[in-house]
Amino acid sequence: MTATIVAPGTQPIDDPQGPVSADRMMRPRRRFRPADLAIVAATVGLAGLLPLGAPLKALLVITFVLLGPGAALATWVRIPRPARAAAIPTLGMATATISSITAMWSYRWDTTAILVLLCLASAGSSAVWYVRTGAWPDVRHWPTAAAHTGRAVITAPGLNPPTVIVAIALIVWAVALPTLPGTDASFYSLLASGSGRLLIPAILLSAIAFVWAIATRRLAAAVLAIGAAIVVARVTTWLGTEVPLYDWTYKHIGVVRYIVTYDLIQPNGTDIYAQWPAFFVTSAWFSEVTGLDPMTMAHVFAPFVHLVLAVIVYSAARVLGQGRRVALVAVFFAEVTNWVGQDYFSPQAWTLLLAFGLLTLLLASRGAPQTAVLAIIPFAATVPTHQLTPFWLLGAATLLVFFRRIRPWWAVAAMIAIAGVYLVLNFDAVAPYGILSGGNPVENATSNITAAGVPAKEFTSLICRGLSAGVFATAALAAIWAWRTGRRHVLTRVILAFSALCLLLGQSYGGEAIFRVYLYSLLGCSLLIAPAVVALLDGWRRGVLRSLGAAVATAGMCMASLAGLYSFVALWPLVSETRTQIDVMNSLVASSEPGTRIMMMTPGGMPSRTTADYAAFTLANPYFDYPLSYDLAERRFSFPTAEQLGFLDWRADQQDHPTIVAFSTQSERSIEYYGEYAPGSVDLFKQALSESPEWTLLYQNGDNAIFRHDAGTRPR
Question: Where are the alpha helices (DSSP H) in 375-448?
């Protein structure tokens, strides 16, 4: 037996081909250190101030945000290596959020100065560290060191069956993309419409490639398959549409444009976002400093969210001691089963990334307590960003402290104090919505959509509920299996997976609580399910029963992928917008005066809050764009009777400002899909307005039409 003496800072180099030279054996192992990353990211961020195109500037600045501030903190605080992939972007996003909202609240709003100060702080942190340690950067070795840092996963995939299948999946997706239907898509999801059908083989091929790669331990091919799944599901919402999806996205765009226009948070009384403005202020900072239009930001937002989400989920799995294959399965599962559509341009999506990154820091605190202290930073960023997420985090963190899964306990106590103080300061804004909406979890889990609608709606509901129930049930079975087989961190993963269900004990969140619970639970469920999937996939060619288990796991991953994609794009004909519609509504709002009522039978396709003007309209009339269904309530099923039409005309005439009624393809399809009005009511209402001398047709293009009633024009 021989012994090898290794000097500090070096490592022996194993060579299966034979002995190696002494100098090669003693060669130091190069790594790309957090200080190196911080100074490179700071340089990239400052480059974002150069007179470049807005997309390039945006890419440079977001790269800095994701890498610079977090790496600067990691330079001084020891963060376990598995946790860094989540910690660095999470801390960077949190720092940008806190810096932006602090500058706004302190009336020190200067977008360029914020970026410069953050970049200088990141670079200065590295410079001080270099001076204090004497470990100066060796720029010549940075490229190889950076490659070495991620070599375990990011290696050349080579030409193998999984990579070939991924390539085929992306080709099929690319063929489908240019001709995807919009509002003419089937009620049975985009996947049942025209070229949208090609998304079915694209997502299934991605799932098959991923399973094959995991079973054969081709990790690089598995990463490519995850990327393909994200492309098929989320890049489609960007490149397959003219403008961002969802009517409610434009409410957020309007808030950001107000801040960009006036360099101020919108006044109290406009909307609840005035009390939880951090996401909008951060977006306004990013828009101003890069020149990127908020609508463009919103359009590309979903792919960005999922790329960062994938990194954080992978890091969380590694922190819990899972192998790389298990971590990649957790990432894939979390991506393909995330169907609830909360990845659009919203505070919810931003805080979800912060929340999952924060939890990863907490999980790492058993071996590195300082990470729990660092977790206070992203928590402080979530509190002024979103109303519900911080309180779910507090519940999960408190349970983890109780079962001694994180330390020190006082880090969570500090979070409770931050959330409590902010809630007290903004209690008047939140009180009208209700702190608690009842203690019946069954009622709180009920969706806010109760009408029967068309058969396609019932089919889609069945798929969505089946997928959600399947995820929770599979996670529960995986937890039992993990406990019986002596796996590590079972209780921790159970808390992450099921603690969000406690929200249903006191809040319905306007009928959306069940969707938020599912979203919050995805991290824990994925971490529970992934080890079981890998164990099953390892059974190929190891006997009939184990091979059958592998086949079941493969089928389950494929079914989950298809069900998740179906559910995500199920409402495509209702939520797809067109640029023409946005332009028409922008012109309408610009030419109208505050106090004007702009209503639709039900929202869809003609958003009225896309510009900074929305604030003046809201202050003049908080209900200026509430739908007609809000006024009619249960009487909408008999609409439009002669009495109802007469009352509408009379009330419009009594107003001090005009009343506008808008129709759109999306609104009409929504009415049909959900069964909100009696069949034929839209055509009858349109006909009544067309024939009435009191209403003027301002615009018409197919199903899209706008009518106006001026006050005081009713015949006496």
Answer: 376-382, 389-402, 409-425, 427-430, 441-444
CA separation for the pair 693, 700 (Å, rounded): 17
Q: Which residues of 219-230 are buried (b: 16+ CB within 10 A; e: fewer)?
A: bbbbbbbbbbbb
pLDDT digits (tens, 9 = 90+) for 306-351: 999 999 999 999 999 999 999 999 999 999 999 988 899 999 999 9
| Residue 637: per-residue pLDDT | 86
SS (H, E, C) 36-53: HHHHHHHHHHHHCCCCCC
Q: What is the pLDDT of residues 61-119, one digit of tens each?
A: 999 999 999 999 999 999 999 999 999 999 999 999 999 999 999 999 999 999 999 99
Structure token digits, residue 57: 């500037």
Tell me the residue type at 716.
R
Which region holds residue 641: left if phi is over 0, alpha if psi is between -120 and 50, else beta? beta
User: What secondary structure does DSSP assign to 544-597, as a single string?
Assistant: HHHHHHHHHHHHHHHHHHHHHHHHHTTTHHHH---HHHHHHHHHHHHHS-TT-E
Q: List the one residue out of 702, 713, 425 whose CA is nearest residue 580.
A: 702
Count of helix runs (H) and strand runs (E) in the chain: 32, 4
Look at residues 576, 563, 684 and name the one whose alpha carbon lies nearest to residue 186. 576
pLDDT at 155: 60
Q: The whole model's pTM is what?
A: 0.91
Read off the pLDDT of each residue in 577-599 and give the average, rounded to a whole number: 94
Between 266-270, 334-338, 413-417, 481-485, the lowest mean confidence (pLDDT) is in: 266-270
Cα 194 to Cα 180, 191, 203, distances in angstroms: 7, 8, 16
422 - beta bridge partners? none
> What is the rounded distance in angstroms from the CA atom of residue 272 to the CA atom of residue 278?
12
Strand residue runs (E) in 9-108:
none
pLDDT score at 654: 85
DSSP string across 600-621? ESS--S--S-SSTTHHHHHHH-
Q: Which residue has the tokens 């796991």?
A: 553
pLDDT (average), residues 260-286: 94
Q: Largest Cα–Cα distance in the chain? A: 110
Nearest to 351 by CA among 326, 386, 320, 323: 386
d(CA 79, CA 400): 19
Sheet containing 704-709: order of strands: 597-600, 659-663, 704-709, 696-701
Report the pLDDT value the prediction gives residue 22, as an integer from 0 to 100.
42
* Mean pLDDT score of the chain: 88
CB-count burial class (<10 Å; 0-12, 13-18, 19+) for 577: buried
- Cα 317 to Cα 314: distance, rounded to the nearest angstrom: 5
Task: For residue 41, give the nearest of 29, 53, 33, 30 by alpha carbon.
Answer: 33
